């Protein structure tokens, strides 16, 4: 069995000639075949990100509601304290001895 040397120039020319045709064909095939898959994946990730955004916004809204309730409670307490002090100061004036003529 005799080993025949490889014609490197002929091999490179054949590969380059085939590549000129196959590269655009592979590109077009990939574009039309992969485009629906890539769009589906993009929609999936968009919806996933949207769900995460909605959950974050819901948590922030719940925290803001808790803060509002806490502030309302503080304002209510301040109003009660103010009314109490007002009643105390009014009671002090009424319990003092009236001026004598």
Structural account:
- The chain has one helix and no strands.
- By secondary structure, it is mainly alpha-helical.
- The radius of gyration is 42 Å and the shape is rod-shaped.
- 0% of the residues are buried.
- The mean pLDDT is 87.
Short structural description:
This protein is mainly α and 101 residues long. It has one helix spanning 8-95.
Topology:
Blueprint: H1 8-95
Number of strands: 0
Series of secondary-structure elements, N-terminal to C-terminal? H
* Main structural class: mainly alpha
Which spans of ≥5 residues are poorly predicted at pLDDT below 50?
none
Overall mean pLDDT: 87
Q: Total helix count?
A: 1
Characterize the main sheet.
none
Distance between the termini: 146 Å
Entry keywords:
101 residues, mainly alpha, 1 helix, 87% helix, 0% strand
């Amino acid at each position: 069995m005799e080993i025949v040397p490889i014609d490197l120039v002929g091999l490179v020319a054949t590969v380059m000639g085939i590549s000129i045709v196959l590269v655009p064909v592979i590109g077009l095939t990939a574009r039309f075949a992969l485009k629906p898959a890539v769009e589906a994946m993009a929609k999936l990730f968009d919806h996933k990100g949207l769900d995460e955004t909605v959950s974050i916004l819901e948590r922030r809204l719940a925290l803001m509601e808790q803060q509002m309730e806490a502030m309302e409670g503080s304002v209510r307490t301040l109003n009660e304290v103010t009314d109490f002090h007002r009643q105390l100061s009014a009671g002090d004036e009424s319990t003092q001895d009236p001026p004598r003529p």
